[in-house]
Design goal:
The complex is a heterodimer of chains A (338) and B (436). By secondary structure, chain A is of the alpha/beta class. Helix content of chain A is 35%, strand content 18%. Chain A is built from 12 helices and 14 strands. A 7-stranded mixed beta sheet of chain A has the order 3-2-4-5-7-6-12, with helices on both faces. Chain A has a 5-stranded mixed beta sheet with strand order 9-11-10-13-14, with helices on both faces. Chain B has 436 residues and is α/β, with parallel strands linked by helices. Chain B folds into 2 domains: 42-371, Thiamin diphosphate (ThDP)-binding fold, Pyr/PP domains (Rossmann fold); 384-435. Chain B is 39% helix and 7% strand. Chain B has helices at 72-97, 111-120, 134-139, 144-152, 185-199, 217-229, 261-265, 277-292, 324-327, 333-343, 349-372, 397-425; strands spanning 126-128, 205-210, 233-239, 242-243, 246-247, 269-273, 298-303. Chain B has a 5-stranded parallel beta sheet with strand order 1-2-3-7-6, sandwiched between helices. In chain B, strands 4-5 form a two-stranded antiparallel sheet. Chain B is globular. The chains are: A alpha/beta (338), B alpha/beta (436). The interface between A and B is large, with 50 and 52 residues.
Chain lengths: 338, 436
């Protein structure tokens, strides 16, 4: 076992897959010689050559479309979109093409493409380097949507995504690339080496897509969350002293509703937390699912804690970010409801 | 042996540790390129997309048919604008390194591209820049204090704290809001120009895009719409050789010049020495006249060099030779215009040093004033509740509700912080209570 941060774990996943499977190719802006603006592909071109790790023109639509073509012709492309905020020029290729090629050709063609993209705020990136658009993609039938919250899951899930015969959009919460973040930007950064999930096997292993995980057991209330917010929720639970169960969704689509609902049926209370904008956010799907399956076990209305319904403002990112205080308030409200 | 296809992967002429090599650049001598009539057909002037329009020669003289014959006072103003742009950039970079702003992008080495273009156009013409044309703001009279306040996200920030540094806008100066997404402004400039033509107005538009971003579909949209409607627009493609770590070959520059894309769409393409103020001025003036008399759009490729890092988040020493900028064959636009003025007998090293000092002092004074309106870490601060404004003209109920929720949260935090910090409050610098 090695100690890895999330960047190293993702790099290791691609390294393992490039080594095991000659069909795997990496492509994206600055991913080759430079190793990616977040260093996630560092060293891979040197190791595997320019035909396995390709720098591309600046054209997200082109990157995704080319990845589709590569995939249709038998390769397993892993495309990086430099920031999730830049993915929209490729949206038509994702929604109308990538997601539907299997369906429209009755499985005669399929496209095993993985799209990796860093998401989320907290790095003073303003509205064009902070977005969490997972709900927009989860709404599209025919693509899987994944977001890990730690290095171990990041590597295992990325390997699963690359091995998957269907397309996967893989969101990487960049605020936790280097360490778990509890939502307080004034505290010194904590490295992944101090976290149990910073322990990552060097070789091949996988974490299945479509499985949520209970990351903290508890009895009073269930917090359903994912990505960076797993750590913020853990901190809020610690400070409030409320005995909450925390479920890390890990895969937005297909959703592991069994794990979520088993927990909520046990605790009878639920708070849903995500960083993305609240309105029509992924939390709406989570709340609806829980309501449908746990209605008779619920003892309080389900609360959502999410980013406000505005673009991510540069100066006010910590006022925007749904931090510990807002999660704690929701936990108290939900657990105090008789 | 049966021939097989083999993937071609472009490779820049030099990597770190290697000698810079610009032998790939096709250069024309100053004064060597003809200046056609502004109403010439795109078909008849395709040579302009292959050659390189240059006015300043190696002896610092203005030569050839593209010499715009500007008077010395105008050239002195140009020099001032370019030098101010550079000193402003240098200062903001240092301020970013001190942690007082979050991010910055310099335009070092590319000052002529923006300054000459803005000076050659009319104040009513609408500009759609990318993020490396701060010279446009300088020419259009934007007070540096306002630019600095935007970078600081402070109480005088034109963007009310919503945008990263350098994403300016300048309505009264007819400069559009800068996007962090690449290339989007290019076809928007065409739309603006189409509206001017629909309304029968005189004004034209100009857009800027990097050679790297010209790979985005937006470039194609812009060219197609501009050609179809013969829109009165100048489409500036700034070929500064580097798009973060990828050299211009990754945008297609290995096989054709970027200017040659113009003729492919039926639009004149002009390749110009982007570090030659007079040449950029002259081709912009030509394209502006052409647009204003309904002869249609022009694509201008500015051949220049990104002397600075892509941004303060970038480290170019990882992917290109450190000495490349010094080896760049088209020199430094500020030095070249300065030498030209000296050759004319209208400038001197002493006057230049004096101007440098004067502008440095101006930048310092602007910074002091800007800082007094607050920084990201020291007050006065913008009211966070303003974050809910301007999503729509009229605030919808969900946002009204969320604003009230945040107001209550902030009040609770303030009273909690106030209880702790009361003894210092009278004379302390207010710092922002974080945590949403």
């Amino acid at each position: 076992m090695a100690r890895m941060n999330m960047v190293q774990a993702l790099n290791s996943a691609m390294d393992v897959m490039l080594g095991r499977d000659p069909r795997v190719v990496i492509l994206g802006e600055d991913v080759g010689y430079f190793g990616g603006v977040f260093r996630v592909t560092d060293g891979l071109q040197r190791k595997y050559g320019e035909h396995r790790v390709l720098d591309t023109p600046i054209a997200e639509g082109g990157i995704i479309a080319a990845a589709i073509g590569l995939g249709v012709n038998g390769l397993k492309p892993v495309a990086e979109i430099q920031f999730a905020d830049y993915i929209y020029p490729g949206f038509d290729q994702v929604v109308s093409e990538l997601a539907r090629i299997r369906y429209r050709s009755a499985s005669e063609f399929h496209v095993p493409v993985t799209i990796r993209t860093p998401c989320g705020g907290g790095i003073r990136g303003g509205q064009t380097h902070s977005q969490s658009p997972e709900a927009i993609f989860a709404h599209v039938c025919g693509i899987k949507v994944v977001m890990p919250s730690n290095p171990y899951d990041a590597k295992g899930l990325l390997i699963s995504a690359i091995e998957d015969e269907d397309p996967v959009v893989f969101f990487e919460p960049k605020r936790i690339y280097n360490g778990p973040f509890d939502g307080d930007p004034h505290k010194p950064a904590v490295p992944w080496s101090a976290h149990p999930r910073g322990e990552v096997p060097d070789g091949h292993y996988s974490v299945p897509i479509g499985r949520a995980e209970v990351v903290r057991e508890g009895a009073e209330v269930t917090v359903i969350t994912y990505g960076t917010m797993v750590h913020v929720a853990e901190a809020a639970v610690r400070t409030t002293g409320i005995d909450a169960e925390i479920v890390d969704v890990r895969t937005m689509s297909p959703l592991d509703s069994d794990t979520l609902c088993r927990s909520v049926c046990k605790t009878g209370r639920c708070v849903v937390v995500h960083e993305a904008t609240r309105f029509s956010g992924y939390g709406a799907e989570l709340v609806a699912t829980v309501q449908e399956q746990c209605f008779w076990n619920l003892e309080a209305p389900i609360k959502r804690v999410a980013g406000w319904d505005t673009p991510y403002p540069h100066a006010f990112e910590w006022e925007y970010f749904p931090g510990q205080a807002r999660i704690a308030a929701a936990l108290k409200e939900v657990t105090e409801t008789e | 042996m049966t021939p097989r296809s083999r993937l071609h992967v472009p490779s820049p002429p030099a990597r770190p540790g290697q000698e810079p090599d610009f032998s790939y650049l096709q250069l024309s001598p100053a004064g060597a390129v003809d200046r056609p009539d502004v109403s010439a057909s795109a078909r008849d002037i395709e040579n302009l997309s292959l050659e390189l329009v240059r006015v300043l020669d190696d002896e610092h003289r203005a030569v050839g048919p593209w010499d715009p014959h500007l008077e010395p006072p105008e050239l002195q103003v140009a020099l001032r604008h370019m030098l101010l742009t550079r000193l402003f950039d240098d200062r903001m970079q240092r301020i970013q390194r001190q942690g007082r702003i979050s991010f910055y992008i310099k335009s070092t080495g590319e000052e002529a591209v923006a300054v000459a273009a803005a000076m050659a156009m009319q104040p009513g013409d609408m500009l759609f820049p990318s993020y490396r044309q701060q010279g446009l703001q300088v020419v259009r009279g934007r007070n540096l204090v306002e630019l600095m306040c935007q970078c600081l996200s402070n109480t005088r920030d034109m963007c009310k704290g919503r945008q990263m540094p350098i994403m300016y806008h300048f309505g009264p100066g007819n400069i559009f809001s800068i996007s962090g997404n690449l290339g989007t402004q290019f076809p928007q400039a065409v739309g603006w120009a189409m509206a001017a033509a629909i309304k029968g107005e005189d004004h034209i538009a100009a857009g800027w895009i990097g050679e790297g971003s010209s790979a985005e579909a937006d470039f194609h949209y812009a060219m197609t719409f501009a050609a179809v409607y013969q829109a009165p627009v100048i489409l500036n493609l700034v070929n500064n050789q580097w798009a973060i770590s990828t050299f211009q070959g990754f945008a297609g520059g290995e096989h054709r010049t970027f200017a040659q894309r113009g003729p492919g769409y039926g639009i004149p393409g002009i390749r110009v020495d982007g570090n030659d103020f007079l040449a950029v001025y002259a081709v912009t003036q030509w394209a502006a006249q052409r647009a204003r008399q309904s002869a249609g759009p022009t694509l201008i490729e500015h051949v220049t060099y990104r002397a600075a890092a892509h941004s303060t988040s970038d480290d170019p020493s990882r992917y290109r030779p450190k000495e490349e900028w010094r080896a760049w064959p088209l020199g430094d636009p500020i030095t070249r215009l300065k030498q030209h003025l000296i050759a004319l007998g209208e400038w001197s090293e002493e006057r230049h040093a004096q101007l440098h000092q004067e502008l440095e002092a101006h930048v310092t004074a602007c910074w002091k004033e800007a800082e007094s309106y607050g920084t990201l870490t020291h007050g006065p601060f913008l009211d966070p509740l303003t974050m809910f404004d301007d999503v729509f003209r009229d605030m919808p109920p969900n946002l009204q509700h969320q604003r009230e929720e945040m107001r209550a949260l902030l009040e609770a935090q303030r009273s909690a912080a106030g209880a702790e910090a009361e003894p210092h409050e009278a004379h302390g610098t207010p710092t922002r209570a974080h945590e949403g």
